Amino acid sequence: MILEEDPFGEDVHSACTLAEEKKLEECGGEFKFKGYARHIGLESVACNERRPCPPRVSLYARMGLHRYNWLKGRKFELSRVGRYVKTIGSAASTYYMTLYAMDMGGGGGGGASLPPETCFEIAVSEYSANCFILFCDIARIQGEEDQTKRRRKRMDTHLPEWPPVNPLYMVEKSEVQEHDEWIRLYVELAVAFDFPPRGGGDFEILDVAMDRNDEGLDAKNATFYISYRDLDDARLGKSCHRIATVRRSFDEDSGNFYLVGGSEFRTEGSSYMHRPLSI
Question: InterPro entries this protein is in (predicted)?
Fold first, then answer.
């Protein structure tokens, strides 16, 4: 895969040194890079039992699989991340991941055996450091032809005000259960970018609402309000009712998939929203 453009027209994420390109080839990286830039480097990391994959990288891998499943109508679930290459030299990074997933929708296996692992190539980029503003422009099974057009529009980093001004549409409990994997992913991403930082946590999804109902949960451009109970805080006797707000966008022209989110929690007589800032 040749990277040619940054999201906003600057040739930043596109380049690496020739030495780094050689390093990638030697370590078996499936993504191909070209060019040269003194201020951008690449760090290649193999994930294994001795060096487990960082939790945030696993979340980014699941985000890429979510994009693939959502567009293709599949049910791949992450098995493991084999290797990732991270851009360095900037506070916000792009992660190029080679990972393995299993099709839980009947794509293989028989009887009680697990389906075989399928190798994916996924790229997820951070728009700004320590903010839940992410985009994914590559999510494919290894060997598939890349149809991405390498053109991206400027991202809208705003979230609607909380509480929302317009009426929301409540999602049926049965639909929430059916789409539990990506709904929980949205909450986990919001928690991952909380400030002060929090762990992965244990939580219970209570209700899901959205700002439109013409396309249901498959809407390509919609904002979701996910009410959940933080079980870790509940065990400590703390306020445990929280709401994750996540806006999902999809650019039909380029195939780019965006998630922008934040989390809100309530204390006695007040509330606090941690959300991305308009940039």
Answer: MS5 (IPR006462)
Cα–Cα separations (whole angstroms), residue 267 to 193, 209, 232: 19, 22, 15
- The residues facing 117 across adjacent strands are 102
**1-147 to CATH, choices 3.30.420.310, 3.10.450.10, 1.20.1740.10, 1.20.120.10:** 3.10.450.10
Task: Look up the pTM and report it.
Answer: 0.80
